[in-house]
User: Fold these one by one.
Assistant:
Number 1:
Amino acid sequence: MRPTYTIASTYHTLSSDSGAKTTDLGVMPEWDLNDLYPSPNAQVVADDILKAKKAALDIKTTYQGKMQEVARDGATLAQAIVAYENLSDLIGRLGSYAGLLYAANTADQARAKFYGDIQETLTGITTDLVFFELEINAVDKAVLDTALKHPKLSRYKPWFDDLRKEQPFQLEEKLEQVFHEKSVTSRASWNRLFNETMTALRFDVAGEPGPLALEPTLNMLTSANGEQRRVAAEALAKVFKENIRLFTLITNTLAKDKEISDRWRGFKDVADSRHLANRVERDVVDALVQSVRDAYPRTAHRYYALKAKWLGMEKLAYWDRNAPLPEKPERVLNWAEARDTVLTAYSGFAPDMARIAGDFFNKGWIDAPVREGKSPGAFSHPTVPSSHPFILLNYQGKARDVMTLAHELGHGVHQVLAAPQGPLLAPTPLTLAETASVFGEMLTFKKLLAETTDARERKALMAGKVEDMINTVVRQIAFYSFERRVHEARRAGELTSEQIGQFWLDVQTESLGPAVDLKTGYESFWAYIPHFIHSPFYVYAYAFGDCLVNSLYGLYQEAHPGFVEKYFDMLKAGGTKHHSELLAPFGLDARDPAFWKKGLSVLEGMIDELEKMPSV
C-alpha cells in the first residue's frame, strides 16, 4: 500500500492547537484537529488502529495469492478495491493526525514519540499488504481489461493504469516487504533527524535580544535594513557551517538509500523514479529544464542587474536578493487584511473558489502564527478525502506572506475539489499539484496590482512578483540541477561538504548571474532546503506549475471559452487524468517547447516593463 499519510516538507504537536493567538498582526488562527481525532490518547485512536489491523488482516486472508482468480470477476475485484481504498483512508487519517500534531511542535518529545509510534504501526500494517498491488500487476492485461468493464470497477481504471506503469520497476514480494518495513529505520528516520535538528537550530543575530529560530531569521533577509539582512545572513551561514557535517551525512545517506532503491528497481536516471511518480515523461521535464536554463540571462541575470542599480550597488550580495525596493517601505498587512485580500481575489475569479477557501478561515483549518518549535515554511496537507485539508503557515505580515497564504489556499481548494475522487484517485501528481496554488497567487497579485495607482507602490509590487516568479521558476530549476549533480556524484562514492558546497555555488552562479555576489558562507545554504531531504527532485514541479499557470492565466485574460468551468474540471479530476488530458481542453501541450517559452515570456515581459519604469 502506498503511503498516504506523510507530509512532504514539515510535520506537527500533543493535544489540538485550537483557538486563536493575538499578536501585533491581529488575531491569528491555530488549527483545530478535532475533525481528525480529539487527542492522541483518545480511545478512538486506539480503536482505529485495531480496526486498521483487522481490515488489513481480512484483506490479506481473503485475497493473498488469489488475485489472478479474483480478477476474473469484475464485481469481486471491485469489492477488493473498495476494501483496500477504505483502509487507505483510515490509515491516512491516523498518519495525517500524527504528522500534523508533530509539525505544530517538533520540539515536543511526546508528540515526536506519538508520531514515531504511529509511523511504525502503520508501516507494520501496510507491510502485510505489499502483495496486493504486486498481484494486481501480475494479472494478465486482457483479464484485467475485461474486469474493468464492470460498472462498479470502471471508475478505478486510471488507478489501474497508473499501477501498471510501475510494473517494470517492482520487485518480488519479500523484497518489497523489506524495502517497505525498513523505511522506518532508514529514510523516515533520517527525515525526522533533519526536521528535529533544523527546528532546534538557533541563530544569534547581532542586535536581537536573543537567539532566533530559522523562520524569523530567514525573514530578516527581506528586511528594508541592509545591515539587518547582512547580520542575519552571517548568522545563518555560521550555524549552517557548524552543523554542516551532520547535514552532509544526512544527504549522503539519503542519496545512497535512493541509489540502492533505484538500482534494485531498474531506474536508470537519478530522477526517473520521481518522473514516474509524477506521471510525467523525462523528455517533458528535460524540455522544461532546458527552456528555463536558456532563459537565465533574459530573466534572473537581467533582473538582478536591474535591482543592483536600483539599490545603488555594483553587485547584490546574496542577502540582498529579496530586499524591498528603496522607493517604498514595505507595508505590514495584518491577518484580517491578508484574509480579505485573498478571498476577494478568489471571489473575483469564481465565487465557489472563495466559498471553499472561506471554510479554511471559518472552520479552524489554518495554523498561522510563528511559534516556538513549530515547523518552518508552509504547506497544505490534504489529509484524507473523508476529512479535509489543513494549512500550516508562519505568517509575519509581509506581502510575500500574503502570497504564501494565497498559494496554500490554492492547494487547499484543489484538495477539497479532488476529494470526491476517493483515496486512490484524489492525489494529484506533483506536476499539476502546483497549478491551483500558483494560479491563486496570480489572482491575488493581479488584484493588488489593479488597485495600486501610486507609481512607487506599483513598481515595488511588480518587482516583488518578478522575484517570486524567479524564486519559483529559476531557483527551483537550479535546485533540480543541484540535486542531479549530488545524486549523480554520490553514485561514485561519498561526498564531502566541500564538494556539495561547490555544486551549490556552481548552479547558483549559473542561475543568478554576475550581478549577485555569492560571498563566503553561502556555500552551506543548501543545507536547510527541506525538499532535498523529504522529496528528492520535487522542486521542478514548482517551475512546471508556474509556467503552466502563466499560459492558463493568459487564456483566462483572453476570455477563453468556458475557462472557469474547464479550470474547475481540471482540479476536480485529481489524479484521474494524465497532464496531457487535462491540458487538452485549453489547447496546451507540455511536450511542445513553445509551451514553456510562452510561460517564461510572461516573466520576461514583466522585467521589460520594470526596465521602462522611471526611477521614482
Number 2:
Amino acid sequence: MARIPQKFIDDLLDRVDIVEVIDRRVKLRKTGKNYAACCPFHDEKTPSFSVNPEKQFFYCFGCGAGGNALGFLMDFERIEFPEAVANLAQSAGLEVPKEEGGGNRVPHQDSHRPLYEQLENAALFYERALRQHPDAPKAVNYLKKRGLTGQIAKAFRLGFAPPGWDNLLSTLGINDAQQALLSKAGVLVTNDKGRTYDRFRDRIIFPILDARGRVIAFGGRVLGDDKPKYLNSPETPVFQKSRELYGLYQARKSNRSLSRIVVVEGYMDVIALAQHGIHYAVATLGTATSEHHLERLYRHVSEVVFCFDGDDAGRKAAFRGLEAALPVMQDGRQARFLFLPEGEDPDSLVRAKGQAHLEHLFATAAPLEQFLFDQLAEGIDLKTLDGRARFSKIAAPHLKRLPQGVFRTLMFQALAERTGIDVDSLLRLQAPPPNPSTGAHLSPTGYGFPDDQESVPVDYYDELHSPSQGLDAYPDDTTVDTRTIASSDSSLVPNHTDPMHRILGLLVLKPDLGRQLDAGLLPDNDRLDQQLFHALLEHINDHQDMSTAALLGFWHGTPQGQLLADLAGREPLEDERGQQALFFALLEQLARERQLLHLRQRLNALKAAPYASLSPEEKQELLALTTEIRTLSGRR
C-alpha cells in the first residue's frame, strides 16, 4: 500500500495558511499578531482559542488542544490523516502523490510502527485463542455467565491468554528482534535471571485502543481465584495509563455526537453497558481520574458522570475525580456523581433494571456542587459558628481551584449562603495545615493524600508478589527486575516552570535554536521529556528547513505531540534575540542542576561514613564539595 511522502506533507503545510483553514470552519477575529475564537473543541463563553499565523499553529488555553492545520482538520472534521491531507491538498490545488512501502500513516508513527504492529499481532493472537484454543471454553463460559454476547465481545476485541508461560512468546517471538519488540510492547516479561515469559496467562484479555483504534496495551482478568484479579500492561512508548481511557474509541465510534460520558470503574462495566445500549461509558486504567482524562472527555461532551460503588472505596475514588474536575470546570461543563446501591455495579444493575433505569440515574445524579458541599460538610454541624468557620476554611481552597468564570462565582456565592460569610472573606481563606501525623491535607471525609505520595501501580506490585499463576514452575527464577516497577512518568504532563519543558516549547517555536546543539549539555534520557528533547534535536538537524507546523505534525496524535503543542502554545512569542537568550539561559540552568546533582550524590556518599573514618583527602574533598555546591546554588 502506498503512503504519503513526508516531503509532500511538509510542502503542503508551507503552502496552506492555517488562518484560512480554521476561519472557514470557526470564525476568527484579529487580536494583535494572532487570531482568536471560542474553542470548537469545548464549550466556553470567553475565547481562549488562539491561532498564530507566523508559526502556523493553533492552541487553546482552555482545553489544551493544539497543533497544525492537519491536526485541526483531523480533530474538527473527525477524519483520519490521509483524508485530512487530501482535503488540504485539494484546497491548495495539489495532487497527493504516493510512494510505495507502507500504509497511509501519520509520518511520526514510523518510529513506533513495528511496536503498533506487534501489539496488533498480539491482539489477533488473543482473539484467535478465544475461538480456537483447547482451554477457550472456560473463557467463553465465563463471558456468557457475565451476560456478554459474541457480538459485543467482537466489538471490544476480547481475547484469551491461555495458561502457560510461553504461548505468545513461542508464536510471535520468532527471533531476538521480535522478542525485544514484544517486551517493549509490555506483553513479555524478563526477570532478573534473564528468563523471558508471557505477561498475561490464563486471563480474559481486553485490548486497550487509542483515539484512532490502534491497540496500545492490554488488560487481563483472571479466570480463577489468582491474584491480581486485573493486570494491566506496563507503560510503554505508546501507552501512558494516566492519559488513556478504556472504551473511549468505541464510544466515539458508536456516536459522533455524544452529549454525555459516564466514567465507571472497570472494563466489564464499560462492555456490559454498551451491550445494553449505553455506548458512552469509559474506565480509567488502574489510576485515578486525572485532569488530562477530563480534558479529553470534555473535548467531546459537556457532561461527565462519575459512576462508582457506594462503599468507602467508591466514594474516595469519586472525591479524587472531583478534585481532578475542579480545575477544568469551564463554564458550560457539568460533572455529576452517582453512587450505586451496596452490592451493585453498573454491570449487575443494567442487567437487572435495564437501560432506561440506569440512564435515569445518570440524568438525576448529584451535580458537582452538591457532592462537593455534602462531602466536605460531613461530620460538621453547620448550625454552630465553629462548624460554619471550619466548613468555610475547608471548602474555600477547593473553590479557588475552579477556573475564572460564572460557575466559580456562583460556587462562592453558594458557599457564602451556607456559611453566612461574605465572598471577599471566603476568597482570603487559606487551606488548613497538613495533618501532623500523616502530612496529608485531610478533608472531613478523609480523602486527602500527602503532596509527595506516589502510589505504586497495583498491577505491577501484585504481579511481583502474587504466588499464583503457577510461579512454582520456575521455583528460583521468578523475581522480576525491580527496575521495571515505576510509577507513571509524569514528565509528559505540561509544567511551565520546568526548564526542560520551556526548552521544548522554545525549540518548537524556533527550531533553528537546536541546530548542532550539544545534547550532552542536558540530562541523560531517564525521563520521557528528556527522550523527546533528544528526538526533537535529531529531527531538527536531519531536516534543515523544519518549521513549527511540521514539527507539531510529526508528533501529532501522541502524548509527546500534545505536550509540544501545549508548551509551544503557552510560550511567550518574544523577539528573536530574547528567545535565544532565554533558551541558552535555560540550558545553562539545566547544566548547573545536573552538576549539582552529581556533586550532592558524592557529598552524600562521603557524609554517610563517620567523619573520623575519612582520610585527609576525603575530608578536604568534603569541604570542597560543600563550597562548590553553595557557589552553584547561588549561596555565599
Number 3:
Amino acid sequence: MNALRITPLDGVIVAAYFFLTIALGLWFGRKKISSAEALFLADREATWPVIGASMFSANISSQQFVGQAGLAYTIGIAAGGFQLVGALCFTLLAVFFVDVYLSLKLRTAPEFFERRYSPGARMFVAALNIVMILCANIASALYAGATVLTDLLGWGTALQFNLAVGAIAVAAGTYTIFGGLRSVLWTDLLQSSLLIVGGAITFGLSLSAAGGWAAVLPTYGAAGNSLWSLFQPWDHAFGWLPMITGGLVLGVYGHCTDHDYVQRALAARSVFHSKMGALFAAFLKVLALFIIAAPGVIAAKLLPGLAHPDQAYARLVSSYVPPGLAGLVLAGLLAAILGTVAAGLSASASMVSYDFVLRFAPKLSEQTRVRLGRGVMIGVLALCVVLAPGIKGFKGVFGYLVQLWSLLAPPVFVCVVAGIFTRRATPRGAVATLTVGTVLGAITFWALGRPEIVAQLPRYLRSALNCGFVIMLGCAATMALVSRSGGANPGANEVADLTAAASGNSMTPDERRTYRLTLAALGILWLAVVVTFSPWGVGHGR
C-alpha cells in the first residue's frame, strides 16, 4: 500500500470543501421545484457569467486535470490543443447555433432533430447522447476522481477504489437530485473559480520548482521535437492534421450539440446571455491550456518515470504545493468532479424525460415529471458507479474519452451542420446517416482496441481522430446521396427562416456591440496563443 501523500490539514480542507459544495448546492436549490422546466432549465433565468462558468466546469472537471495533464506528461502541450479546439467550438455555438436553439424554444438538444428531421432522428440522437454522457462524462469523472483520491490517500485495493467512486457519486447526486439545474449552475460558478485559482497555484509553484521558463522550455521528445509545441507531426495520434480534421468534428459535436452544454445555453434569460455565456466559456478554455496541459509538461521534467501518466497532476500537487495550499488545490480538483457528474445527471435525466417518457405519456402532471426526473438521476448514477472502474483497462482516461467521442460524433455532426446550413438534407437522409455512422463508429472502436488489427492499418488510420474524420466523410456522402433520392422535408424551411430572423433581431444595439467586441478580443487571444506555442514561437525543436 502506498503512503499518505497529503497532510492532515489538506485532508480537512478537502473534506470541508466537499461538504460546503453540497450545502451550497442544496441552499441554492432551496426554492421548491414545481415543474420539469424548473428542474432541468432553472426556469430559463440564467445570466452569462453563470452559464459560461457552468459550461467550463461541466467540460473541464477532473477528467481534464487527470487525463489531459497525463497525456501532456507523455506527448507535451499538444494535449492541450483540445482546449483551443474547444474554445473555437464554444465560439461556433455562440455565433451559429444559439440563435437556432433558442428560436425553436427547445427543451433538449435532440429536440432540434425532430423539428428539423423526424421523431425517429430525435430519439436516435437522444439515445446516443445519453450513452455518451453515461460512459464518457459521468463514469469517467467518477474514475478520474477516484484515481486522485486513492493516490493521495495511499489506497491501493480494488475495494478502496470502488469506495472512492461511491463516495463521489453520493456527494454529487445529493444537491443535483434535490436542487436541479439551478443548484448545478451556482455551484459550478464557485467550482470554476476555485479550479482556476488552484490551477494557477499549481502552475506557478511547479514552474518555480523546475527553475522557471528558462529551465523548462528546452524540453524535447525522443524525436527532438519540443514538448511546448502544439504542432505534432501529421501522423501522430494527436498531430496537427487529426486535430484540424477529426478534432474539429469532435469539438463541434461535443460543444455545440451535446446536451451537457446546450442545456446551459437553453437556460439563459435571453439570446445575449446565452451567446455571452458561450464566449465566456471559450475564454476559460484558452486559460485551461496553462492550468492543465502546461503543468503536465512541467511534471515530465520534475517527475519522470511515473507508473501511470494519470498520476501526474495529483503527484505534482502533493510534491510541490505546500500544505494548506495543496488542500485548496485538491479541493477544487475534486469538487470539479461534482460539477461534471451533476451536469451529466441533469442532462441525461432531461433527455430521458423529455425525449422518451413524455413523448409517450404527455399528460403526466408537473409533480410526476419532477419525481420521474429525480428517479432517472438515481438510476443513472447507480449505473455509472458500476461502469467507472472498467475505465482502468485503458492506457489513460483522456485516451479513452477521445477514442469514444471521436468515433460516435461524426453522424451527429453531419446531421446538425446539414440541418442548419442547408435545406436539402431530408429526414430519410438523417436516419440513414445516423445509422451508417453509428455502425461504422462501433466497428472502428472495436478494431482500434485490437493491436493485431491496428498493426495492419495504414498509419493514417491508427488515430481515432483520423478514423472519425473518415467516418464523417462517409456520413456526409450518405446524407447527400439519400437526401437526393427525395422525401418530405417539413422542418427545413422552419429552421432556415428562424435562423435568418433571429440573427438580426435577437439583441439590442448595445448588446450586439458588446458581443462583437468580445468576439474580436477572443479571436485575437486565440491566435496569439496558437502562434506562441508553435514552431515559430517557443515550440521550436532542436
